[in-house]
Amino acid sequence: MLTEAPDAGDVLDGPVDGLTAQEAAAFVLGDERFEERFAIATGLGPIFNNVSCASCHGGDGRGRPQPEFSNIVLRLDGAVAELLGEGSATLERRAIPGAQPESAPPGEAVSRRLPPPVFGLGLIEAIPVEAILANADPDDADGDGISGRAHWVAAAPWVPPNEIGSGPGDQLGRFTRKARVSSILEQVADAYHKDMGITSDFLPVENENRQAAVPTTAADRVVDPEIPAEVVQQVVFYVRTLAPPAPGPMTPQREEGALTFESIGCASCHVPELRTGPHPVAALADQPVHLYSDLLLHDLGEALADGVGDGEAGPREWRTAPLWGMRVMRDFLDGEAFLMHDGRASSVEEAILLHSGEAQAARDRFDALPPQLRAAVLDFVESR
Questions:
Q1: Which H or E run includes 257?
Q2: What are 280-331's pLDDT values in tens digits?
Q3: Which string of DSSP letters, residue by residue, matches 140-190?
Q4: Chain-centre distance of CA 116, in angstroms?
């Protein structure tokens, strides 16, 4: 007996509705590139973390922290990495023969970070800057204890001017755990370069292990750049047009959970809906975005501090994690859940109780809820 294909809203790798025939074909091609596994003969390395985009973002979802399946990424403080002359703040822990993998400098803090899901990135990209800034309150002017702030970053100079998040001057960081990247293209090209050791027209010079006694780049004999800009752009289009999974249906318990979620203050950071503006891809323009995030930086307290800064984001600051995709998360992780930046929480309840800093009051209100309302909040969050 054949199994049935899952509904479109139950997968992590489906396209947004409304793509043209040409865009749908480009989505399929980008999917193939996303799955492509590199080998030494095709340019892998010399130092790297994994062999394909999909190897870190399995099924286009989040990573796993267990040692035998881990795709945890290790990051140094950006300022420390620059001071030490490291090739990048991301540590590349694998190497091809003849090259030496990177390791953390003794005594330096290292942040363990799970690769986040890649669905919905195009919708996040299409939200106008002013819509995100409308929720910022860096000085806590309203006195509610929550002071979300934008992370202004410098875009890489090689990002083309037609890309959202490109150009001179400060750009709004939207992507990565600490919102240190302003464009999807920069994120994808940098992942090829650092995480797979694949050079492109955007970043044509191999990443170097500054710790090695012998230059690691000599081990990689494939001519640079190893992929053209076109390949990077194909993957960019793919992740740009990946649809977030559909939330579950609202039930009376979930309705109660949604109201309680808002009343105890969770929705102050996990904003239920933002909206996109104009976009070259018509399917992404003027759309509601139910991501449950304000895309701003918040101080989440010492318990979640990683000792590592990214740009202007401090060790205690994190971009509000979107909650979409929670409903199907365990379907792609063998029934498990890995939440927070390092996957330390195995349930939504555990994740909530780890919050402190700006989220302390909301966390305490949740902890004080009677069992019925507490269960309603958890059911609601896990249905998104």
A1: helix 252-263
A2: 999 999 999 999 999 999 999 999 999 999 999 999 999 999 999 999 999 8
A3: -TT-SS---B--EEEPPTTS-TTSTT-SSSEEE--BTTTT-B--HHHHHHH
A4: 4
DSSP structural state of residue 125: H
In angstroms, the CA 238 to CA 34 distance is: 8
Residue 181 pairs in a beta bridge with: 175
Residue with tokens 């934008």: 150
- pLDDT tier at 68, thresholds 50, 70, 90: low
Contact 153, 181 (CB under 8 A): yes
Cα separation, 213 vs 82, whole angstroms? 19
The secondary structure of the chain in percent helix, strand, coil, rounded to multiples of 5, reads 35, 10, 55
pLDDT band at 228 (very low <50, low <70, confident <90, very high): very high
Q: Is the per-residue pLDDT at 64 higher than 90?
A: no
Cα–Cα distance, 244 to 289 (Å, whole number)? 9
Tokens 């992590």 sit on residue: 12
What tens digit of pLDDT does each residue of 333-347 get?
Answer: 888 899 999 999 999
Range 246-382: architecture per CATH: Orthogonal Bundle (1.10)
3-state secondary structure of 170: strand
The C-alpha atoms of residue 221 and residue 36 are separated, in whole angstroms, by: 20
Phi first, then psi, for residue 306 (nearest 5°) are -110, 5
Cα separation, 157 vs 21, in Å, equals: 33
